[in-house]
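Researcher: Let's run the pair from yesterday's discussion. Sequence first, then C-alpha coordinates, for each.
Model: Starting with the first of the pair.
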Amino acid sequence: MFVKVWGKDNCNYCDLTIEACQQLAEEMTNFSYEVVKLEVDYEVEDFTSHFPYATTVPQVVVDGKHIGGWDDFQGVWERELNKLKVT
Protein backbone atom coordinates (compact mmCIF):
# COMPACT_ATOMS: atom_id res chain seq x y z
CA MET A 1 0.00 0.00 0.00
CA PHE A 2 1.26 3.46 -0.91
CA VAL A 3 -0.18 6.56 0.74
CA LYS A 4 0.40 10.16 -0.28
CA VAL A 5 -0.54 12.80 2.27
CA TRP A 6 -1.15 16.35 1.04
CA GLY A 7 -0.81 18.51 4.13
CA LYS A 8 0.73 21.60 5.64
CA ASP A 9 2.67 22.65 8.71
CA ASN A 10 0.83 23.42 11.97
CA CYS A 11 -2.11 21.16 11.11
CA ASN A 12 -3.25 18.74 13.82
CA TYR A 13 -5.10 16.44 11.42
CA CYS A 14 -2.08 16.35 9.13
CA ASP A 15 0.06 15.34 12.10
CA LEU A 16 -2.40 12.59 13.06
CA THR A 17 -2.37 11.26 9.51
CA ILE A 18 1.43 11.26 9.38
CA GLU A 19 1.66 9.51 12.76
CA ALA A 20 -0.77 6.84 11.55
CA CYS A 21 1.35 6.35 8.42
CA GLN A 22 4.50 6.07 10.53
CA GLN A 23 2.85 3.38 12.65
CA LEU A 24 1.71 1.42 9.61
CA ALA A 25 5.17 1.70 8.04
CA GLU A 26 6.70 0.21 11.18
CA GLU A 27 4.23 -2.67 11.35
CA MET A 28 3.62 -3.53 7.68
CA THR A 29 6.24 -4.68 5.20
CA ASN A 30 4.19 -3.61 2.17
CA PHE A 31 3.42 -0.04 3.31
CA SER A 32 5.09 3.18 2.24
CA TYR A 33 4.06 6.80 2.26
CA GLU A 34 5.00 10.25 1.10
CA VAL A 35 4.13 13.58 2.69
CA VAL A 36 3.93 16.74 0.59
CA LYS A 37 3.47 20.07 2.32
CA LEU A 38 1.83 23.28 1.15
CA GLU A 39 4.26 26.01 0.16
CA VAL A 40 7.16 23.57 0.47
CA ASP A 41 6.33 20.82 -2.03
CA TYR A 42 3.23 22.25 -3.70
CA GLU A 43 1.23 25.45 -4.12
CA VAL A 44 -2.48 26.10 -3.67
CA GLU A 45 -3.00 25.84 -7.43
CA ASP A 46 -1.53 22.32 -7.45
CA PHE A 47 -3.82 21.33 -4.59
CA THR A 48 -6.97 22.64 -6.26
CA SER A 49 -6.08 20.98 -9.56
CA HIS A 50 -5.73 17.59 -7.81
CA PHE A 51 -8.66 18.05 -5.41
CA PRO A 52 -11.10 20.55 -6.93
CA TYR A 53 -13.79 19.98 -4.28
CA ALA A 54 -11.53 19.74 -1.22
CA THR A 55 -11.26 22.73 1.08
CA THR A 56 -9.22 21.25 3.92
CA VAL A 57 -5.99 19.38 4.55
CA PRO A 58 -4.89 16.73 4.81
CA GLN A 59 -6.07 15.07 1.64
CA VAL A 60 -5.03 11.45 1.38
CA VAL A 61 -4.45 9.30 -1.69
CA VAL A 62 -4.17 5.52 -1.20
CA ASP A 63 -2.74 3.49 -4.07
CA GLY A 64 -3.56 6.29 -6.48
CA LYS A 65 -7.16 6.75 -5.28
CA HIS A 66 -8.22 9.89 -3.44
CA ILE A 67 -10.03 8.80 -0.27
CA GLY A 68 -10.51 12.11 1.55
CA GLY A 69 -9.14 13.57 4.76
CA TRP A 70 -8.16 12.33 8.21
CA ASP A 71 -11.60 10.96 9.08
CA ASP A 72 -11.58 8.82 5.94
CA PHE A 73 -7.98 7.70 6.37
CA GLN A 74 -8.61 6.87 10.02
CA GLY A 75 -10.92 4.09 8.85
CA VAL A 76 -8.22 2.69 6.54
CA TRP A 77 -5.66 2.88 9.36
CA GLU A 78 -7.92 1.07 11.83
CA ARG A 79 -8.77 -1.67 9.32
CA GLU A 80 -5.10 -2.29 8.57
CA LEU A 81 -4.25 -2.46 12.28
CA ASN A 82 -7.08 -4.93 12.83
CA LYS A 83 -5.77 -7.11 9.98
CA LEU A 84 -2.38 -7.18 11.70
CA LYS A 85 -3.97 -8.33 14.98
CA VAL A 86 -5.82 -11.17 13.25
CA THR A 87 -2.78 -12.60 11.45
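Model: Moving on to the second of the pair.
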Amino acid sequence: MLREIGAEAVPSRLLYNKIDRVTEADRAALRARQPDAILLSAMSPKDVAALRETIIAFFEAAMVEDQLVLPYAKQGLLSDVYENARVLSEDYGTTGRIMKVRGLPGAITRLRRTLAAL
Protein backbone atom coordinates (compact mmCIF):
# COMPACT_ATOMS: atom_id res chain seq x y z
CA MET A 1 0.00 0.00 0.00
CA LEU A 2 2.82 2.45 0.77
CA ARG A 3 4.21 1.91 -2.71
CA GLU A 4 0.80 2.80 -4.19
CA ILE A 5 0.91 6.25 -2.63
CA GLY A 6 4.63 6.83 -3.25
CA ALA A 7 5.64 6.48 0.40
CA GLU A 8 7.75 3.31 0.30
CA ALA A 9 10.85 5.30 1.34
CA VAL A 10 9.11 6.65 4.46
CA PRO A 11 10.23 4.78 7.59
CA SER A 12 7.45 2.53 8.85
CA ARG A 13 6.69 -0.26 11.29
CA LEU A 14 4.16 -3.06 10.99
CA LEU A 15 1.63 -3.01 13.82
CA TYR A 16 -1.04 -5.60 14.60
CA ASN A 17 -3.81 -4.21 16.81
CA LYS A 18 -6.55 -6.14 18.60
CA ILE A 19 -4.00 -8.82 19.46
CA ASP A 20 -6.13 -9.66 22.52
CA ARG A 21 -8.56 -11.35 20.12
CA VAL A 22 -5.87 -13.69 18.76
CA THR A 23 -4.95 -17.02 20.32
CA GLU A 24 -1.47 -17.47 21.79
CA ALA A 25 -0.66 -19.97 19.03
CA ASP A 26 -1.59 -17.43 16.35
CA ARG A 27 0.46 -14.74 18.14
CA ALA A 28 3.47 -17.06 18.09
CA ALA A 29 2.93 -17.64 14.38
CA LEU A 30 2.73 -13.88 13.76
CA ARG A 31 5.93 -13.31 15.74
CA ALA A 32 7.69 -16.03 13.73
CA ARG A 33 6.48 -14.63 10.40
CA GLN A 34 6.95 -10.95 11.28
CA PRO A 35 9.58 -10.73 14.05
CA ASP A 36 9.83 -6.93 13.83
CA ALA A 37 6.07 -6.37 13.98
CA ILE A 38 4.49 -4.71 16.99
CA LEU A 39 1.68 -6.77 18.52
CA LEU A 40 -0.69 -4.87 20.79
CA SER A 41 -4.16 -4.30 22.05
CA ALA A 42 -5.19 -0.65 22.22
CA MET A 43 -7.36 -1.69 25.17
CA SER A 44 -4.23 -2.46 27.20
CA PRO A 45 -2.59 0.58 28.83
CA LYS A 46 0.64 -1.44 29.11
CA ASP A 47 0.64 -2.14 25.34
CA VAL A 48 -0.11 1.50 24.51
CA ALA A 49 2.71 2.68 26.80
CA ALA A 50 5.09 0.19 25.15
CA LEU A 51 4.04 1.46 21.70
CA ARG A 52 4.73 5.03 22.80
CA GLU A 53 8.23 4.08 23.95
CA THR A 54 8.86 2.21 20.69
CA ILE A 55 7.85 5.26 18.64
CA ILE A 56 10.01 7.59 20.73
CA ALA A 57 13.03 5.26 20.44
CA PHE A 58 12.48 4.95 16.68
CA PHE A 59 12.68 8.71 16.13
CA GLU A 60 15.36 9.38 18.72
CA ALA A 61 17.70 6.86 17.10
CA ALA A 62 18.52 9.47 14.44
CA MET A 63 19.02 12.29 16.96
CA VAL A 64 22.31 13.72 18.13
CA GLU A 65 23.37 15.54 21.27
CA ASP A 66 25.13 18.89 21.17
CA GLN A 67 25.83 21.92 23.30
CA LEU A 68 24.60 25.37 22.31
CA VAL A 69 25.41 28.72 23.85
CA LEU A 70 22.64 31.29 23.54
CA PRO A 71 24.00 34.80 24.20
CA TYR A 72 22.11 36.69 26.90
CA ALA A 73 21.36 39.48 24.44
CA LYS A 74 19.58 36.98 22.14
CA GLN A 75 17.29 35.17 24.58
CA GLY A 76 14.45 35.79 22.14
CA LEU A 77 15.79 32.79 20.21
CA LEU A 78 15.15 30.49 23.17
CA SER A 79 11.78 29.45 21.76
CA ASP A 80 13.52 28.39 18.52
CA VAL A 81 15.76 26.08 20.50
CA TYR A 82 12.82 24.53 22.35
CA GLU A 83 10.82 24.13 19.13
CA ASN A 84 13.64 22.36 17.28
CA ALA A 85 15.36 20.29 19.95
CA ARG A 86 14.86 18.75 23.34
CA VAL A 87 16.77 20.67 26.00
CA LEU A 88 18.43 18.14 28.28
CA SER A 89 20.08 20.60 30.64
CA GLU A 90 20.76 24.30 31.06
CA ASP A 91 23.52 26.19 32.76
CA TYR A 92 24.56 29.82 32.78
CA GLY A 93 28.01 31.05 31.80
CA THR A 94 29.59 34.45 31.38
CA THR A 95 28.59 34.71 27.70
CA GLY A 96 25.12 33.17 27.78
CA ARG A 97 22.83 30.28 28.50
CA ILE A 98 24.60 26.94 27.92
CA MET A 99 22.21 24.23 26.80
CA LYS A 100 22.79 20.55 26.21
CA VAL A 101 20.29 19.61 23.50
CA ARG A 102 19.15 16.56 21.58
CA GLY A 103 17.61 16.80 18.12
CA LEU A 104 17.75 15.79 14.49
CA PRO A 105 21.10 16.66 12.87
CA GLY A 106 19.51 19.12 10.43
CA ALA A 107 17.71 20.99 13.20
CA ILE A 108 20.88 21.23 15.30
CA THR A 109 22.82 22.49 12.26
CA ARG A 110 20.18 25.18 11.61
CA LEU A 111 20.31 26.29 15.24
CA ARG A 112 24.13 26.44 15.13
CA ARG A 113 24.01 28.55 11.95
CA THR A 114 21.49 30.93 13.50
CA LEU A 115 23.60 31.33 16.63
CA ALA A 116 26.81 31.76 14.61
CA ALA A 117 25.20 34.59 12.59
CA LEU A 118 24.60 36.64 15.76
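Researcher: Give me one sentence on the second I can quote.
Model: The radius of gyration is 21 Å.
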